[in-house]
């Protein structure tokens, strides 16, 4: 079983300098172009049998453009959404720093952000969807997963069986692609954050 993990294209929040998370911004014109380039590339080299996507606009639209190229089934999985950042969603970073400053030393992993989720809850949610995919979609040879930077980073930690508080972070650029493989006795990383499909157009590396 192969897992083809894809981050959405550039969203309007990337240009506005706001906390995105659960704020539901659409793709920009550049994001549409990035997603189209990604879809063409995937169709040629890594065609999936099924596509799973977050319901948030930026990911869902990216997945829909991929589906148009591939023609396979597209399923929305709510647990592929980005970190629930509660009161920060849509706020400018400057305003957020004033209204909701981080506690000294950072927010403890078990403490949720106001109206949102904690880092522990986020990791637990991603572990849940990771194992659900392995169980419910195991009969597919290659599953495409379209999601968000923070979710993908936690997904990779789940794949690698890393603890929640490990120091490793896996950034993913706009429409960056990761290819993982699971065999009976092995978990294989084929590549991480491939973006060669964006050659010639601007690409940003962001984590939301």
UniProtKB/TrEMBL annotation:
Gene3D superfamilies: Phosphoglycerate mutase-like (3.40.50.1240). GO terms for molecular function: phosphatase activity. SMART domains: PGAM (SM00855). GO terms for cellular component: cytoplasm. Substrate binds at residue 58. The active site is at 8 (tele-phosphohistidine intermediate), 82 (proton donor/acceptor). InterPro entries: His_Pase_superF_clade-1 (IPR013078), His_PPase_superfam (IPR029033), PGM_Phosphatase (IPR050275). This is Histidine phosphatase family protein. Pfam families: His_Phos_1. PANTHER family: BROAD-SPECIFICITY PHOSPHATASE YOR283W-RELATED (PTHR48100), HISTIDINE PHOSPHATASE FAMILY PROTEIN-RELATED (PTHR48100:SF1). SUPFAM superfamilies: Phosphoglycerate mutase-like (SSF53254).
């Amino acid at each position: 079983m192969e897992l083809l993990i894809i981050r959405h294209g550039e969203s309007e929040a990337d240009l506005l300098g706001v906390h995105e998370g659960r704020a539901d911004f659409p793709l920009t014109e550049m994001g549409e172009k990035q997603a189209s380039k990604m879809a063409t590339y995937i169709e040629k080299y890594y065609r999936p049998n099924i596509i799973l996507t977050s319901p948030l606009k930026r990911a869902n639209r990216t997945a829909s453009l991929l589906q148009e190229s591939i023609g396979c089934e597209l399923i929305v999985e709510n647990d592929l959404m980005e970190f629930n950042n509660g009161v920060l969603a849509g706020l400018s970073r400057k305003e957020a720093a004033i209204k909701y400053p981080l506690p000294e030393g950072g927010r403890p992993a078990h403490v949720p952000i106001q109206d949102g989720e904690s880092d522990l809850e986020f990791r637990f949610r991603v572990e849940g969807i990771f194992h659900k995919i392995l169980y419910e979609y195991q009969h597919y040879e290659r599953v495409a997963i379209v999601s968000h930077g923070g979710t993908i980073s936690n997904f990779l930690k789940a794949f690698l069986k890393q603890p929640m508080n490990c120091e490793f972070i896996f950034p993913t650029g706009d429409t960056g692609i990761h290819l993982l493989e699971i065999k009976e006795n092995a978990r294989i990383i084929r590549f991480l954050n491939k973006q060669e499909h964006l050659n010639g157009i601007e690409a940003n590396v962001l984590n939301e």
